[in-house]
């Protein structure tokens, strides 16, 4: 595999051809925040949290392949503020009530809010009317919290290659939905996988909740990206 | 120089944020040295008796009385702080925001299995319920926001000290949480 030399915020980095900027940065110990991206899934570039600047242009670092001689801006105040704005936008366009959510403390959206010290979103709240689907035996879908990252769509697939989750409608009405029969056939393990794939509390397993006490959850004491 | 004056209120909140203020433990003695309290459930002063420097608001606005109270605080306080998730984004009460008010009232007072006298309260003395729950900064200008459910005592303490002394606020990661 060909070696590629590039720079992130002035630091010399080495990557391999075919790697995305996010992957190559990770190999060099540099954290680029991601939300819709999940290791092992084909990148979708839906959330744009990973936006970096290359040659003066904004690019999604999870979908852009790293190239020889690339000069990447990652932690500049301009980019960091734009990422914070995206987080705030995601918060106001859904109904994200952290105190009531089972995923709180293990939620990636919340964890990103923490690293950017989001005290209040700068945008007006939309309080959209969204539905909850509790008809699946092992799971429920709370669309109030969905950020439409499409991780579940990409990652929850049956043995014969059928997608269990899909996106229905368009624009502001776009929503995650599950195929009734395929969702009903999900094993406990698959249901857990679907829940773990979801970065927020939109897909949750039934029958269990608030399992880990406050103070011991994933992002209670350790910021997201700090384990790199 | 006279001490800075602090006022507090709980609007559509559960008083948990006020409890968290008390959670600063023995630092409350230092707080009393630093500031004087005016209108607040802490000292039970019901109306403003003077112009205040800092107003701390817990809870969002779910009825007309909350709005009136909040506007009164804005008028009487130089600096207003939204304390906790309810003040910042409506919090738990805002879970009704997707449900029409009529449906909420019918569910609570007419259709609930434990309801005895099936009547929706409509006494003139009662404040009018709003179409939805509003965050405080949707009603008046708010100067600072301290998130958490409740906000950690250390966050409240550090923010107040920074505000009173003019020092830079350097918050540890564990202190800013949304739950």
Report on the structure:
- Chain A is α+β, with helices and mostly antiparallel strands and 228 residues long.
- Chain A has 2 domains: 3-74, Roll (Ubiquitin-like (UB roll)); 85-205, no CATH class.
- Helix content of chain A is 23%, strand content 18%.
- Chain A is built from 6 helices and 10 strands.
- The mean pLDDT of chain A is 96.
- Chain B is globular and about 55 Å long.
- Chain B is of the alpha/beta class and 179 residues long.
- The mean pLDDT of chain B is 96.
- Chain B contains 6 helices and 7 strands, in the order βααβββαβααββα.
- Chain B has a single domain, classed as NADH:ubiquinone oxidoreductase-like, 20kDa subunit (Rossmann fold, 3-Layer(aba) Sandwich), CATH 3.40.50.
- Chain B has helices at residues 16-22, 27-34, 64-76, 85-89, 101-111, 153-165, and strands at 5-10, 36-37, 52-58, 61-63, 77-83, 129-134, 144-146.
- A 5-stranded parallel beta sheet of chain B has the order 2-1-3-5-7, with helices on both faces. In chain B, strands 4-6 form a two-stranded antiparallel ribbon.
- At the A-B interface, helix 3 of A face helix 4 and strand 7 of B.
CATH homology-level superfamily of chain B: NADH:ubiquinone oxidoreductase-like, 20kDa subunit
Helix proportion of chain A: 10-25%
Order the strands across the largest sheet of chain B as they lie in space: 2-1-3-5-7
Number of helices of chain B: 6
Q: What is the N-to-C order of secondary-structure elements of chain B (H for helix, E for strand)?
A: EHHEEEHEHHEEH
Structural domain tally of chain A: 2
Taking pLDDT < 50 over at least 5 consecutive residues as the criterion, the unreliable ranges of chain B are none
Largest inter-chain interface? Answer: A-B, 28 and 28 residues
Q: Assign an overall shape of chain B.
A: globular
Topology pattern of chain A, helix = H, strand = E: EEHEEEHHEEHEEHHE
CATH class of chain B: Alpha Beta
Work out the radius of gyration of chain A: 18 Å
Count of discrete domains of chain B: 1
Shape of chain A: globular
**Radius of gyration of CA atoms of chain B, rounded to a whole number:** 18 Å
Assembly category:
heterodimer
Distance between the termini of chain B: 38 Å
Strand content of chain A: 15-25%
Structural class by helix and strand composition of chain B = alpha/beta
